Amino acid sequence: MNDLSRAAVLPAVEQSAALAVSARGLVKCFGEVRAVDGIDLDVARGMIFAILGPNGAGKTTLMRMLATLCSPDAGSATVMGHDLVTAPQEVRANIALTGQFASLDEDLTGRENLLLLARLWGFRGRAAAARADDLLAAFDLSDAAHRQVKAYSGGMRRRLDIGASLVVAPGVLFLDEPTTGLDPNARHGVWRMIRALAAAGVTILLTTQYLDEADQLAARIAVIDKGRKIAEGTSRELKAATGSGFFHVVLADPARLAEAARLMEARLSGPVQRSAEGAELSIMARTPKAANEALAALIAADIELAGFSMGSPSLEEVFFALTSASRECETIEEEAA
Amino acid sequence: MNDTASAALPVRLVAVTRPPAPSALSNALVFGWRAILKFKHLPEQLFDLVMTPIMFTLLFTFVFGGALAGSTGAYLQFFLPGILVQTVSFNAVYSGMGLSADLGKGLFDRFRSLPIWSLAPFAGLMVGDVLRHLIAAAIILAIGLVLGYRPEAGVVGAVAAVALLIVIGFGFGWIFIVLGLLIRTPTTVMTLGFTLQFPLVFASNTMVDPATMPDWLRAFVEVNPISLMTTAIRGLMGGTATFHGITLALAAPAILTALLAPVTLWLYRKQ
C-alpha cells in the first residue's frame, strides 16, 4: 500500500477519540472471495471521506461492516468511539446509512416514510410530524409529501433517502454511491447537500466509483481495489504521488497506437495508459526532458500526432496507475510462488 | 433543490435534540402502524383478502355441498370452520411476501442500521397478519350466517374460535417469514409456500369427512395439524371442544414458533 501522507494523518491517529471511524485489519469473506481483505481506515470527525474503487472492489461490504449490517471475519473497528462487534447498538445510535438502493418503503408516501423513522427514533405525535415536515421542506419535497415513493423520480428518492438519514443528527453518515444513476442536475444537488451537511458538522463517509465525485467532495480519499486499500491521501497527494509530470499524446492515426505505446514504454520505462476511446496515450514522465525524448522518438518513427501535453494526472489516471501497479505486484507474487 | 435551501437548512436540521430512546414495544407498534398503512396503499391486497374466502365459501357450499353432505345447509355447518382454518393458513403468505420484497429493496438495511429492538419489524408483520386474519374471519362468518350457518356455541364459541385461529395464523406466519428471509422473489415465496400447504390443507378434514378415504391417507389426515386445528375450531364453534383437542391444535403453532422464531432471528442477523 502506498501511504502517501503519513505525516498529515498522524495527529488524528494519535487521538483516536477524535476519530469518527477507526478500523484495523477488517476482513470479510464470502466463501472463497475475500471481499474486504485487511483494511485499515481512520476518518477524522467532521470530514468528508471518500472510498473510491471500481465495482466489486469491496466498498459496499466495507461500508456495511462499519454500519453493523454484517460482522467482520477478522479485524476490529470503532465508530464514534464504540466498538463494532461488542457495542453494535451504540454504533447504530450514532450512524445513519443511505444504501446504494433507496432504502425506502415504496408503497408509503414520502411523509409516511419519514414519520415511520421519526417514530422509530423516539419522536412522538406532533414532534414526529414536525420533524418529518421539516425534513420534507429542507429537501424540497413538501409538494410530493403525500405521494407514494414509487411515483418519485430518481433524484427525489435520493433526497428523501438522505433526508431519512437525518431524522436525528448522526455522528457519521454513510452514503453508499450517493449519486449512482442520477442525472447531472440531481447529482449536483446531492453534492451541494453533502457539502452543506459536512459544513454543519456531520462526518460523511461515502463510497463512489466516480473519480470526479471523490475529487469534488472529499477531504481525503482511500482507493480500494480487490478488497485492499491501495492508496490514501488528499486528492492532491494522490496525484502528486503518481507524478506531476504526466505526458499525454493524441495520435492522428489510431492504427499505430500499439506501436506508439511500445515506443513510449521503452523510452519512459513505465506502463502506458490507453484511453477507453480515441487514440490517446498517457504515461508518467518524471521530467520534461524525458517527455521530450519520448516525443522525439515518436516523431522519428513517423507517427503523426494530433496533439500532446504535459501536466498533472487526472484522478482517473491516478486510479489506473494505482490499480495496475497493484495488479503487477500480484502477478509478480504469483510468479514467485 | 435550490441553493439557499440546501446551504442554510442543514445547520438547523442537524441541531435537532434527540428524543429519549423508545421502548421495544413502541418500536413494534410503529411497525404495526406501517402494516396498517399497507392496507391503505395496497387496496388490491385487500381485494384478494376479501374475495378469496367469499369465493371458496360459495363455491364449495353450492358446488359440492349437496353431493357431500346431502344438502348445502348441512355441508356449510360442517365446512365453515374448515374454510376458516384454510383461509388463515393461506393468508399467512402475505407477510412473507412483504418481507421478501422489503429485503430485495434494501429497506431492511436501514431498519437494521437503526438502534431499535431487532425483532420489531417482525412484530409489525405479525400485527398485519392478525388484522388480515380478523378481516377474513369476519367476512367468512358473515357470509356463513347469511347462508344459514349457526354456531351452536353462540358468540362465545365464535370468539374463542377466532382467538384460536389467530394463534394458528401466528404459527403459520413463521414458515413464510423464514421463506421470505431466504428467497428474494416474493412470487417464489408464494408458490413455494402454497406447494407446501396445498397437500396439507386438502388432505385433511376441512372439506370432507375422512371416513371414505383409503387407510393410508386417513392415517395421515388424522395426524395432519390442519385436521387437528379444524377439529378444534369445529369444537369451539359447536360447543363440543375438549381441552385435549385444543391442546392438539396448539401443538403445531407452538412447535413452529419454538423452532422458527430462533431461525428467523439467526437468518435476520446473518443477512
Task: Sum up the structure in keywords.
heterodimer, A: 337 residues, alpha/beta, Rossmann fold, Alpha-Beta Plaits, 4-stranded antiparallel β-sheet, 12 helices, 41% helix, 26% strand, disordered N terminus, disordered C terminus, B: 12 helices, 82% helix, elongated
Give the secondary structure arrangement, pairings included:
The complex is a heterodimer of chains A (337) and B (271).
Chain A: E1 2-3, H1 6-14, E2 19-30, E3 33-44, E4 48-52, H2 59-66, E5 74-79, E6 82-83, H3 88-93, E7 95-98, H4 110-120, H5 125-138, H6 154-164, E8 172-176, H7 184-199, E9 203-208, H8 211-217, E10 220-225, E11 228-233, H9 235-242, E12 246-251, H10 257-268, E13 273-274, E14 280-284, H11 288-300, E15 305-311, H12 315-336
Parallel strand pairs in A: 1-11, 4-9, 4-10, 7-8, 8-9
Antiparallel strand pairs in A: 2-3, 2-5, 5-6, 10-11, 12-14, 12-15, 13-14
Helix pairs in contact in A: 4-5, 9-12, 10-11
Chain B: H1 3-14, H2 24-41, H3 43-69, H4 72-91, H5 93-105, H6 107-112, H7 120-147, H8 154-182, H9 186-202, H10 215-223, H11 225-238, H12 243-270
What is the terminal-to-terminal distance of chain A? Answer: 20 Å
> Approximately how much helix is present in the residues of chain B?
over 70%
Determine the CATH topology of the largest domain in chain A: Rossmann fold
**CATH homologous superfamily assignment of the largest domain in chain A:** P-loop containing nucleotide triphosphate hydrolases
General description of the model:
The complex is a heterodimer of chains A (about 325) and B (about 270). In chain A, strand 13 and strand 14 form a beta hairpin. In chain A, helix 10 packs antiparallel against helix 11. Chain A has a seven-stranded mixed sheet with strand order 1-11-10-4-9-8-7, sandwiched between helices. In chain A, strands 3-2-5-6 form a four-stranded antiparallel sheet. The N terminus and C terminus of chain A are likely disordered. Chain A has two domains: about 240 residues, 3-Layer(aba) Sandwich (Rossmann fold); about 70 residues, Alpha-Beta Plaits (2-Layer Sandwich). Chain A is about 40% helix and about 25% strand. Chain A is elongated and about 80 Å long. Chain B is an all-alpha fold and about 270 residues long. Chain B has one domain. Classes of the chains: A alpha/beta (about 325), B mainly alpha (about 270). The interface between A and B is large, with 55 and 42 residues.
